[in-house]
Amino acid sequence: MGYFGRLKQAVSGFFPAHTREDKNTKTAENTASPRGLPNIHILATGGTIAGRQTGAGPHYQAGEQGIEALIGAVPTMRGLANISSEQVTNIGSQDMDEKTWLKLVHRVNELLTRADVDGIIITHGTDTLEETAYFLDLTVPSGKPVVLVGAMRPANAVGADGPANLFDAVVVASSPDSAARGVLVAMNGNVFEARDVTKVSTTAVQAFAAPNFGPLGQVHDGRVFYWRSSDHRADHTSARQHPEFDVSGLDMLPAVGIVYGHANAPALPVTALVEAQYRGIVSAGVGNGNLYHEVLAALADAASRGIAVVRSSRVAAGPTMRGIELDDARYGFVAAGTLNPQKARVLLQLALTRTQEPGEIQKMFDYC
Ligand code: ASP
After folding, report:
1. Average pLDDT of 7-23?
2. 235 in a domain, yes or no?
3. How far is residue 215's CA from residue 227's CA, in Å, rounded to a whole number?
4. How far is the CA of 98 from the centre of ligand 1 (A)?
5. Residues 149 and 268 in one domain
């Protein structure tokens, strides 16, 4: 047994394999096709992984190639799984919208109820990949693997990273060890959980990190190795609770905006969102989610009008804690914990489909 095998054996005694509710899980083992391989379905949405460079310069267009071309570039993946695919859309993920999120989640949930689908891969642009991943993480009840994957270099660039990332995504989606871990992201040899992963470089191939908890595992030589379980309860002592949000009847989500904090920040963005009748505002505050006094006054006013206000931080790592320099209870604010502003926005949109009450929303932020 090699190094990874020994390490895996060593850690598996300490960490439970899965922490998520597992009732719908059918692993690759128990639904294997006659070829003895799992059935993996790819939903393609575009991004640089499907991008094409046109001239000699660096310019390229995201979302140009169809999924069949991407699969064709990685013939070895057919040795890992029976691959099927469909093109959901073909866009740069800067154009991702809620309509597409809802279309995706409806399709994912439909596919995962089928006994002949063991796992799903979603190809996606990297710009907003983390938001789609977290949205699906909160809305897909199945424990079967769902893996998002992208690339930093267009499909026809020298050193394109898409083929290797796609191969790794098939490895991850095909592994029974990936079941019941929530939605995963496979990028540059790492496996991340949807909740913590974020894009940290505009250009590097190592574009993603999980600033608070680190990657869940790694893909190495066609195998996935998990180092730890998913554990995000506020006290970090027990398994993350995962109430799924049922969006099956929805064709839109509540409007939530993000306001970026900085020195001498004006109240104007907050008042604009209030006037536009947004139902929620996420503050990307400074430090531990702190607010310039004019912004604080505007957000307090918004909260007093029944608009849900969540304090997150523009700082890359560390939690935004309740009641440290700011009395959240007094203002009716919610603290985002370790969710960055764009993830906090996703959770707040879903929370608002259930309640507008800050105490109830705070509980969701503590446990999602
Ligand atoms: N703008 C592209 C996108 O998000 C970037 C990428 O995929 O890396 O679709």
Report:
1. 34
2. no
3. 8
4. 17
5. no
Residues 201, 264: one domain? no
Task: Quote the pTM value.
Answer: 0.90
d(CA 316, CA 342) in angstroms, rounded, equals 12
Residue 126 lies in a domain: yes
Asked whether residue 335 falls in the same domain as residue 214, the answer is no
Question: 126, 131, 161, 185: which to mutate for ligand 1, most atoms within 8 A of CB?
Answer: 126
Q: Which atom of ligand 1 is nearest to the CA of 48?
A: 7
Range of the domain at 271: 256-367
Atom 7, ligand 1: which residue's CA is nearest?
125
- Closest approach atom of ligand 1 to CA 46: 9
**Ligand 1 mean position, distance from CA 93 (Å):** 6
Residue 48 annotated as catalytic: yes
Q: Which residue, judged by its Cα, is nearest atom 1 of ligand 1?
A: 92
94 lines ligand 1 (CB under 6 A): yes
- pLDDT at position 99 over 60: yes
What is the C-alpha separation between 344 and 313, in angstroms, rounded? Answer: 10
Neighbours of 298 (CB within 10 A): 26
138: CB partners within 8 A, 6+ apart: 244, 245, 346, 347, 350, 368
Question: What is the reported pLDDT for 243?
Answer: 62
- Please check whether residue 232 lies inside any domain of the structure: no
Same domain flag for 214 and 274:
no
d(CA 52, CA 56): 12
162 CB near ligand 1 (under 6 Å) = no
Pick from 13, 200, 233, 39: nearest CA to 119: 39
Q: 25 CB less than 6 Å from ligand 1?
A: no
Residue 128 and residue 29 in one domain: yes
Number of domain units in the chain: 2
Tens of pLDDT, residues 228-249: 876 543 444 444 555 689 999 9
**Per annotation, catalytic residue among 19, 27, 45, 48:** 48
The CATH number covering residue 24 comes to 3.40.50.1170
Q: How many CA atoms lie within 13 A of 172 on its CB side?
A: 34
The DSSP symbol for 320 reads: B
CA of 107 to the centre of ligand 1 (A): 22
